[in-house]
TrEMBL record:
One of its GO terms (biological process) is response to amino acid. It comes from Methylophaga aminisulfidivorans MP. InterPro entries: ArsR-like_HTH, AsnC-type_HTH_dom, Dimeric_a/b-barrel, Tscrpt_reg_AsnC-like, Tscrpt_reg_AsnC/Lrp_C, WH-like_DNA-bd_sf, WH_DNA-bd_sf. It comes from the Bacteria. GO terms for cellular component: cytosol. Residues 5-66 form the HTH asnC-type domain. The keyword Protein transport does not apply. This is Transcriptional regulator, AsnC family. GO terms for molecular function: sequence-specific DNA binding. It holds the Pfam family AsnC_trans_reg.
Amino acid sequence: MSEQLDKYDVMILQKLQTDGRITNQELAEAIKLSPSPCLRRVKQMEEKGLIDGYVALLNAKKLGLTLMAFIGISMDKHTPERFEALESTLAGCPEVLECHLITGQSADYLLKVIVKDMDAYQQFLLNKLTRIEGVTGVHTSFVMKSPIKTTALPVS
C-alpha cells in the first residue's frame, strides 16, 4: 500500500497523526498544497481505509487510571471456539486497551490493561479474567515507566 502514497499523502498522514483536529485549511498550508486537493486526498484515504477514524487521546493519570500492566494469558485448548469466547469476553472489559494473540511465549494472549490501582487490578483479575472459561495461567508485568509512548505509525 505504501507504494501508492506520494509525498503529499505521507505528509497528510503524518500531520493528522499528531493533530487530528487540524482544519483542512491549516493542513493544506502545512503541507504546501491548496485546500481543495488536500481535502480530496484526505477523503480518498478515508475511503480506502488508510484512515480508520479520529479520536481524542485522554490523560489516564488525570482520570485516575494510574496502573498499567501487560498480562500474558495461557489457554487450556487452542481451538477457534475457545479463542473466540475469550476475545468476546475481553472485548466487553473497558480495562483492556489491547489484546493480542501471540506466539513465541508461554502465553497465548498478551493484554495491555489500565486500572485505577492495585485494588482495581485485583478485582479485574479475580472477578473477570480468571473466571473466563479456558484461562489456565495469568502472568502480569506492571509498567513502571513509559519513556516512549506514541500512537503514530511510521508512515513513509
